[in-house]
Amino acid sequence: MFAKTTKLQRLATAGRARRAFSAAPLVTERMNMFTALNDAMRVAMETDPTAAIFGEDVAFGGVFRCTVDLKEKFGEDRVFNSPLCEQGIAGFAIGYASVGRTAIAEIQFADYIFPAFDQIVNEAAKFRYRSGNQWDCGKLTFRAPYGAVGHGAHYHSQSPEAYFAHTPGLKVVIPRNPAQAKGLLLASIRDPNPVVFFEPKALYRASVGEVPVGDFEVPLGQADIVRAGTDVTLVGWGAQMRVLEETADMAEEAGVSCEVIDLQTILPWDVDTIEQSVRKTGRLIVSHEAPKTGGFAAEIASTIQERCFLSLEAPIQRICGYDTPFPLAHEKFYLPDALKNFEAIKKVVNY
Amino acid sequence: MALRFVSKSLARGHRRFAPTAKSMSTVVGYGDFPGGQKVPYVNKLTVVDPKEKDVIPAYRVLDQQGKIVEGGSLPEGLNEELVVDLYKNMVRLNQMDNVFYDAQRQGRISFYMTAFGEEGTLFGSAAGIKPRDMVFAQYREAGVLMWRGFTLDQFADQLFSNEDDLGKGRQMPVHYGSRELNYQTVSSPLATQLPQAAGAAYGFKLAKEDRISICYFGEGAASEGDFHAALNFAATRDCPVLFFARNNGYAISTPVKDQFRGDGIASRGAGYGIPVIRVDGNDIFAVYEVTKKARELIMTEGRPVLIETMSYRQGHHSTSDDSTRYREVSEIKFWKDTNCPLTRLKLFMLEKGWWSEERDVSLKDTERTNVLQSLAKAEAKGIPHISTMFNDVYKEKPRHIQEQEQEMLEHLAKYPDHYSSTGH
Ligand SMILES: Cc1ncc(C[n+]2csc(CCOP(=O)(O)OP(=O)(O)O)c2C)c(N)n1
């Protein structure tokens, strides 16, 4: 692991820091993921008077506390509850952004984004293209908690990123820890394209870390090499990064050096970083919670196979959720945990 | 004046089937539920049946013979100059529809949709709002864009998806848009523009602009979930938006009896707490007046309004549709002959001495010639440069799209004769 300040400085400078960090040690504050997201929204609202936050139950602070105190700070006009209707939230947000204002719209669970699928895929994603760049809704971000949470079953556990990754015009972003969450969310809110931002809800409280204070961004479209290694490349995003780090620890004990990469942006994704890593290691494992068939690992595997055919020492492995709905009692068995990933490492190393 | 009369008569509403049990029920207290306003308790079981309510009346100024109705008057703001201008635009739209409908039949453009029968609705409402107001259209509202100054050349360029099309040749014909004219680009998915119009209006409200959104949609589109979303959002956020339903009796082949069972679209406003006005859509004066009035209400009361115009889709749904397969030719003829918005206005103008048959014939000729000229010009232009196909997906061009563009250009260089850039 990098020393605390070095790692964060790297993060901040990579993120086109809005502030000059110079040689002075970076000022950070200890936060969990929901406070980091809250902090990002506070900065976004302070720096952009047109920004508004809305969704189901956001006014009292949100069911995951992400919008706590924001209504008190910025007023009822800018932080407000919407009626319980996801297609309405999405359509309203698109219209608000279409007149040049910043919309930060919350979908309470990623599992409930599907009623808004039409607005996001047919409208938001195509808004600029179809009008010949006369109109756009780029100042729009959809935030939604996603992923396993221990007991979420079918409708409080889903990871729908691959559905959106199939839609030109959208950006899809997923952070892995509080610092990344803050920097990536600020970058998403300010990106001139509509962004779907999935937050690993299992980490809202569980992930705690030092977060740079004030205004800073982590750039979209760039993967982050979390740990350098030489034998196998492990790629994932969001909550799965914890699993992959655990896997890498297990591999290290077994004498295998893993390069662990957080993709961060699912669309458009950072092919270069993965390609360079695989050219070096010759082995790739992609892991996500979402079901295997049609999951985003398939896109990565096929692209890397095209680009790194001669460097590959073993077939690319996809360690994913099974092709079933997300189960309740069997969650432990369903998830692509560290042991399943470790088995994949053994397989590619011994191939 | 006249409008106030409409709402009063509504309030007094004479019940056709006054239920006796109901009339005997007495209020025995009030409940202060968080889920309702103060709700009266009654001592008789009461079924509220919409069938027992009066049909919401449609406001009318001009009758079918082109005469001002009893007690009515030419709406304030309309004078000879404006009325003649409105009529000229209706004729222009008609000629444009005739020419391009035929052009599609000849295979010169890929698709077209006419607005026959709805000219009064379009120009009446367009004249009743302000140029800065933001239009969210469905697709049968070219007249609104025309009133704002979109030229025949611009329409033709879009229809031919040529290099001068503001939309860069990417969408089907009739999917017009103009940033300059505050007309958001049309898209095919029905009703999606409704919640968007509410969101834009909310933006105008926070910016404290003297500006509304006006959102057009058909009675068929009003069955989509986005209609519900939009009205509820607009009401709860007090958005300055005018929802403008064009009830023309059909959604492609589907008559309204298969579309809904309530009293049209207007009756739904109450459920959302939104004031409604129903209007005779074949009467351009009435449409103009109610639109102006609605805009005024929206700005003074700070809340949305719903207008339902009653008219008839005289043309086929589109060039892909033959409407005689699901409705009688005699029905179409009846509406054309007895209730056409153009004829009504023309009769009024003739009677006033503001118009003559000679001017009418020559106007039609001129406009037809103008449209034909625009068509010829647009047809002669090429399609946008091939590489523009990769622009505007995002504001910037991501690397994977740049690579795909490069791949395509290399492929074309290899097979230069294989891909024609003409035709559709
Ligand atoms: C979401 C969606 N479903 C279906 C269609 C196909 N479609 C196009 S127009 C139309 C009928 C619309 O009727 P209405 O809203 O009454 O408008 P009108 O054509 O009468 O002006 C249908 C079903 C579509 N474009 N979008």
Quick recap:
The complex is a heterodimer of chains A (351) and B (424). By secondary structure, chain A is an alpha/beta fold.
β-strand number of chain B: 10
Distance between the termini of chain A: 29 Å
In what range is the share of β-strand residues of chain B? 5-15%
Strand order of the largest sheet of chain A: 3-2-4-5-7-6-12
Largest interface pair: A-B, 47 and 50 residues
Provide the CATH top-level class of the largest domain in chain A.
Alpha Beta
Question: What CATH architecture of the largest domain in chain B would you give?
Answer: 3-Layer(aba) Sandwich
Q: What's the tally of helices of chain B?
A: 14
How confident is the prediction overall: mean pLDDT of chain B? 93
The number of helices of chain A is 14
CATH superfamily of the largest domain in chain A: Thiamin diphosphate (ThDP)-binding fold, Pyr/PP domains
CATH architecture of the largest domain in chain A: 3-Layer(aba) Sandwich
How does the major sheet of chain B shape up? Answer: 6 strands, parallel
Count of folded domains of chain A: 2
- What gyration radius of chain A follows from the Cα positions, in whole Å? 20 Å
CATH topology group of the largest domain in chain B: Rossmann fold
How would you explain this protein's 3D organization?
The complex is a heterodimer of chains A (351) and B (424). With 351 residues, chain A is of the alpha/beta class. Chain A is built from 14 helices and 14 strands. Chain A has helices spanning 4-14, 33-47, 70-74, 86-98, 117-124, 127-130, 161-165, 178-190, 203-206, 240-253, 271-281, 296-307, 331-334, 338-349, and strands spanning 28-32, 52-55, 79-81, 103-106, 140-146, 171-173, 195-200, 208-212, 224-227, 232-236, 258-262, 265-267, 284-291, 317-321. Chain A has a 7-stranded mixed β-sheet, with helices on both faces. In chain A, strands 9-11-10-13-14 form a 5-stranded mixed β-sheet, with helices on both faces. In chain A, strands 1-8 form a two-stranded antiparallel ribbon. In chain A, helix 4 (86-98) runs parallel beside helix 5. The two termini of chain A are 29 Å apart. Chain B has 2 domains: 80-380, Thiamin diphosphate (ThDP)-binding fold, Pyr/PP domains (Rossmann fold); 386-415, no CATH class. Chain B has a 6-stranded parallel β-sheet with strand order 4-3-5-6-10-9, sandwiched between helices. A two-stranded antiparallel sheet of chain B has the order 1-2. In chain B, strands 7-8 form a two-stranded antiparallel ribbon. Chains A and B meet through helix 4, helix 5 and helix 6 of A and helix 7, helix 8 and helix 14 of B. Thiamine diphosphate binds at residues 140, 188-190, 218-221, 246, 248, 250-252, 313, 317 of chain B. Thiamine diphosphate (TPP) binds at residues 140, 188-190, 218-221, 246, 248, 250-252, 313, 317 of chain B. Chain A: It holds the Pfam family Transketolase_C. Chain A: It catalyses: N(6)-[(R)-lipoyl]-L-lysyl-[protein] + 3-methyl-2-oxobutanoate + H(+) = N(6)-[(R)-S(8)-2-methylpropanoyldihydrolipoyl]-L-lysyl-[protein] + CO2. Chain A: It is an enzyme of class 1 (oxidoreductase). Chain A: Keywords: Mitochondrion, Oxidoreductase, Transit peptide.
